């Protein structure tokens, strides 16, 4: 016999699942309590729900297509590079979320579009240069940091 700390009931050992990592070789909670814990987790995490997962996957795909089509029609504002693979969104105004985070969270096209309005499209190289300039970085800054000056 063993007492389950969750339900505080003394139960037969057969009512506990095996766990070779525990001293007695059994799970801490009884099978009934584990079932309840798993069910409540399932209720609290709707993204685990297969229908919601399907919907979110579709929303992500729509968002990706929207962003890709936007990038195909908006080359780098500095050098004119038009390859979407190297284009990025450079937030000029205060950002709420990163665009890629919004896409993979399955956020709506309207929300993504509003966030894109705060950005300029730049290729990766121009984006680094613009960020460095805005932040006051220079090669001397990096050299002095590296040399300890």
Secondary-structure map:
Blueprint: E1 2-3, E2 10-11, H1 31-44, H2 50-73, E3 87-91, H3 99-104, H4 109-116, E4 119-123, H5 124-135, H6 139-147
Organism: Nostoc punctiforme NIES-2108
Protein name: HNH endonuclease
Jot down its keywords.
single chain; 149 residues; mainly alpha; 2 domains; two-stranded antiparallel sheet; 9% strand; HNH endonuclease
Low-confidence stretches: none
Largest sheet: 2 strands, antiparallel
User: Count of helical segments?
Assistant: 6
* Portion in strands: 5-15%
Descriptive report:
It is built from six helices and four strands; from the N terminus they run ββααβααβαα. With about 150 residues, it is mainly alpha-helical. The chain has two domains: about 15-45; about 55-145, no CATH class. The strands form two sheets. Strands 1-2 form a two-stranded antiparallel ribbon. Strands 3-4 form a two-stranded antiparallel ribbon. A hairpin with a 6-residue loop joins strand 1 (about 1-5) and strand 2. It comes from Nostoc punctiforme NIES-2108. This is HNH endonuclease.
